[in-house]
């Protein structure tokens, strides 16, 4: 069987589009050009995908995704099995491995030429080999083929990492989920952990139909989608039905975070920092905008109809304080209103729509004259010398082709426009369809304080155009500059930005020379963000904070976030650099890519399978590393995956055979429509449980203690001390010991009738004299999973002797929110008596403020229970002994 296995050459085609200011160029709401669905089945000897899983861990907006496909050869002879996987364009592949009949082969990232040489040398020696490369000219699609023995299995595992970008006030985490055939074991999981808090979580699925598929994808009725969350974590799972898999192309998770500081979140860990700047509630700067629209002959038909539709919608969205004009161009240039920008009112908007309706496509493309006339219109507006809000003046250019009349040299157009704009305005470029010179538009926009976007000529093109406009429609700050004070920092990414738009985000990363520790205030890392607002110059300040240990798993690395964004910005800078600077950039990108195992346009990942089961690295050999066994969650490995699989005998049509492998290129295009549904989550519940209320509605499904949490290092329960503070009349701050030293397996049970009779791994038996504060384990960090705590609080003197009572309140409360509080919860038993068969029980969960006050005459029993997935910051309980209220 070993002799029948041969790994043929495989490639990743990657579109590496790098951030410009707070944006990444790419398809609106879809960062990969879509593919025509190419479904195959296991009939007639084709391979069968037996497992198709995706698991993503998102921590502080950084997504780590593992993609795995398990494929079985159902044929009676050995044959080639292939898998196709799709990735977001902004992602970096960080690992690839194959498990063939128990033998694991792991990829190594090397400089591209060295990796290619190793690959060729392995093939020349008759060894099986694979090469993973990035090609910026193609969509990011991963293909791999391998010969598998009859009845054999192969597991493909692909890891990639991506820093999520904020657009239109949400982070959109896209997971491409089309295995190419119906898979019985198909599952997607996304874990999100955000220390600053989560304000919104939504999930939807997208379908891309072909003409042969007549039934639409009714996403309003998608099955088995689960969203669980606390204020700081969310867990989303989706197990698509067989019917849904026929049309499913991608699964989207959208979320946003809490922003309490106008200066943004400045997070620090292990000597690195990441600064997320996205202030809310700043006033919007009035904008002066000129729309420059291509009406050449190639825009005829659907393109022009969609452009007109988008323009009419955009005109309705202009604000009363804005000014605008419209220019159209083919061989000649035509302005709606000559020589001035118009104010926004009903009369002018109506006239502008009439002008839009009369646009007809014909002639060539005089791009340069139209752009120059647009700048001339902006020059007619006197700028405010006090605020210097030039950044609120913008040119939005849309074209579907290359210049064909007037000045046709793209380098000359760039040079003349750069001189004319002179840093005063922002130029945004939209490339419509496949024939546009997007590289030219990208450079033109970047050189003039803007960004470019590719618009795909699909049925939703008008929505893409409108979506792009929405991103830049509300400027809040211009000329943004960020400085860091206190602890010295180095290797800081870009810190000056032309504009900040509502709903976007500015991101800065850097390295701290000495990790901050408890030192004088002057040495704490602070960020000072300055910019021009509608009210004048402003400075926003924020202080750095260490990420709590409980919010990260053992594989999370702030250094990787720093390396990711640094590489992206260096590759972006390389586009405009001279030869000497390009060489410097190449050297640094290569060093960072190989250190952090990123496949970029300067590196490749090579996998070889020698006969002695070693991986060849240049002229040396090392044993093939066996991946560490991943802890399991609910019967699933920590990371899982997706892929499209098919099989066949011998070589496939259209492939070019080479010694020891093959190269395959397939053209893909998109067809059909997309459909979307949405799920919303509400939060916060307090459920009183009296004697007459059934307690069967409160199951607590809990696997055994010690189940791995994807957001925590391995936890050895019950090593979670309970932090307790008291008033000055009692002992100073102490640590209450747990009532038991053994981890407890919590079975699915209703609230216990006798809480003092259950096993626990934390809690206490405590007398209250005046006041006491009690917290959940690890508060204000995340509480541990699979935990059960029991506290009994009592007074020294009964109420019958001394007319006082115990009052319990929750100054802070953050648990997982679930209907009927069926998962993480706090149970309170006022004046519990073990002799009672049906005691009074109050149940609390969720993460909204809890105004409830619980009173007890002599004692209170409090039980805290958590399960195995979502965690929160827990709670602070305040207990007071006070006189009876009269």
From TrEMBL:
All residue ranges annotated as the VWFA domain in the record: 288-472
Gene: Itih4
UniProt entry tagged with the keyword Nucleotide-binding: no
Covalent S-S links between cysteines: 762-789
Source organism per UniProt: Phallusia mammillata
Keyword field contains Cell membrane: no
Signal peptide: 1-22
Family: Belongs to the ITIH family.
SMART domains attached to this UniProt entry: CUB, VIT, VWA
UniProt cross-references to PANTHER family, sorted A to Z: INTER-ALPHA-TRYPSIN INHIBITOR HEAVY CHAIN FAMILY MEMBER, INTER-ALPHA-TRYPSIN INHIBITOR HEAVY CHAIN H4-LIKE PROTEIN
Domain (CUB): residue spans on this chain: 762-882
Compositionally biased intervals (Low complexity): 726-747
GO cellular component, as recorded: extracellular region
Region (Disordered): 649-669, 726-751
Lineage: Eukaryota, Metazoa, Chordata, Tunicata, Ascidiacea
InterPro entries reported for this sequence: CUB_dom, ITIH, Sperma_CUB_dom_sf, VIT, VWF_A, vWFA_dom_sf
SUPFAM superfamilies xref list: Spermadhesin, CUB domain (SSF49854), vWA-like (SSF53300)
Subcellular location: Secreted
Protein known as: Inter-alpha-trypsin inhibitor heavy chain H4
Domain VIT residue range list: 33-162
Taxonomic superkingdom: Eukaryota
